[in-house]
Every structure is written in C-alpha cells, then in structure tokens.
Amino acid sequence: MTTATAPAVDSEETTRNRRRPARPGTGAGRPGFAWAAPAAVFFGLFALVPLLLVVVLSFTRWNGLGSPEFAGLENWNKLLDDPVMVKSLWLSLVLTVLGVLVQTPLSILLGVWAAGHQRNRAVLSAIYFVPLLLSITAVSVLWRALLDPNFGIPSQATWLFGDGNLFGVQTSALGVLVLVSTWQFTPLHTLLYQGATRAIPQVLYQAAQIDGAGRVRQFFHITLPQLRNTVVTSTILMVVGGLTTFDTVLILTQGGPGTDTTNSAYYMYQKAFKSFDFGMASAIALLLVLVASLVSLVMVRLSGYDKMRSTMEGV
Fold first, then answer.
1. pTM (global) more than 0.70
2. Fewest beta carbons less than 10 Å away: which of 6, 122, 154, 178?
3. Quick check: keyword Lipid metabolism in the entry (predicted)?
4. 104 vs 24, which has greater pLDDT?
C-alpha cells in the first residue's frame, strides 16, 4: 500500500506562500502607503487643518475683521449658559431621532423591494432616485414653494391644513423639516439596502422555502439579520446628517417661528454671519463635532459593529 503525501506537501507550500511577503512588481500583497497618500493629504488639508483652526478660534474673540483676540474659556462659558444653545441642541437631537425613525423602515422596505425582479422595477427605482440627484437647496426651495401658505398646496386645501401656515407652529414646522429630509435622503439609504439585499446568498432563501417559510418569515428571519451591518452604517449616516442639518432649516423655516426650529447648525450660522461672533460660532461647531462623534462611537459600540469581521480579508 502507498500513502498519499502530496496534499500535505501542497498544504505546507501554500502556507509558506501566504506568509511570504510579495515581491515588488508582482501585483500581489497589500498596497503600500503611497496608494493612500493622495487621500491622506486631501483629508489633512480640507478636514484636519480647518478643524484645528476652529479649535483655535473657539478660544478667541473675533468679528471677522482684524486679528482674533485670545479669550480663554469665555465662549465656552457663554455657550453652556445660553438657553437658546441648549434648546437648539435638543431640537437637533429631536430632528435626528425623527429622521431615523421615519427613514429607516421606509429605506429597508424600499431597498428590499428594489433588489427584487418585479416588472418595471428598474424604471420605478430610477424615478424614485431622482430626489437624490437634486441639491439640498433646490429641494428646499421646491418644497417652500409647494407649502407656501399663500400660493401653495395648503392654501388650496384649508379643510386639511387649516389656515395653511405650516411654518407658523413648531409641531408642523418640524414635521415639514422631517418630510423634506425624508423625501430627499431616503433614496440614498434605499440604495444601501438594495445593494446589501442583493449580496445575501440565495441559498438561504431556497432553504427557507424548502422548510415552508413564506415571504414574511424570510424577511424577518433572513433579510433583516443579514442587513444588520447596513442598518448600523445607514443609521450613523442619518445621525451625522441630522445633527448637521443646515440648508433645509435656512430655506424652509429660518429657525422660526421664533427659535422653535433653530437647531445647532443654524444657530452657529446666526452667531457667525448675523452676530459676527466667530469665536462663539467656532465653539458651537466644535461642540457639534464632538456630539456627532460621541453618538456615532456609542452606536458602534452598542451595536457590536466594531467586533464584526468580514469572511474575506481585503487586499
């Protein structure tokens, strides 16, 4: 009798090849730092340097003219004692939570549907993604015209909208902001869920069909668990976007009525370009960065996203 030893030799040789570093010019192995250098330089110039300047300005008094004067913790002390700032931060959190609660289920359902093979699915998906191609300013101007209390839809449907002034009450004004954000940004998150759904192995659904599971059970027991990573990624994008919403508030409500829709990003704009207090505005901007980063890190930690690993290692 003879023993087959070739597989063991092949296995040892394969292991040695995996451990051996790739020779230059062979095209194998990990890319070097030079590949990331352009992106790192771009990020440093247009993200880290401005952020450092904002940190410095947050400890100064500056009206945009002349040289900034060092003020120590003056801006931060005023910031913590400012009731409008506290209210604006609370409104930012409210708008963010409402956006997540509304957009997430819509995005998941539409993304799963768009990943299928229904008739006319491609045409309907293309039409649905149109808002994603428009700028935030264009979308806000469009909805401001549509919801104008004098000439828009509310003025023609008083039986539904009452006096038609949706921007005159805090509840309806916040509802408009959530509606407009949902209309524009849900297609982006739908696209994420569409791609993630198409990446789910079809063998899971085939096995479920053999076991007699219908579409509803397949959705809750296969699709949703497989979309866990995408849910976390999409939610983080929504949170960061919600906390930094500015254009929509500026064009639709301008922080009104009063300060009822003045979120932190818009309050920063008021301090900088209306009050010309760039030191206070820089402190607000830095606070927003810290809050958004902290919320994102907490979400990643609580969801276990940082412990997840791919089945395939990247190049």
1. yes
2. 6
3. no
4. 104
